Amino acid sequence: MTRSCWRHAALALAIVAGITHAAAQELSLPPVSLIQGAVVPFSHEAVMATLVRGRFRDRPVTFFRGERPSQWSALLGADLADPPGRTELLLELTEGRDQRMVRIEVEVRAAGFGTQALTLPRHMVDLDAKVLARVNLEQARIAALLERIHPRRLWRGSFLIPVEGQITRTFGMRRLLNGQARNPHSGEDIIAPKGTPVLAAHNGIVRLVADHFFSGKSVILDHGGGLFTVYFHLNESGVREGAAVKRGEIIGKVGASGRVTGPHLHWGAVLAGARVNPLGLLSLPSE
Question: Taking the model in full, what pTM does it have?
Answer without folding.
Answer: 0.85
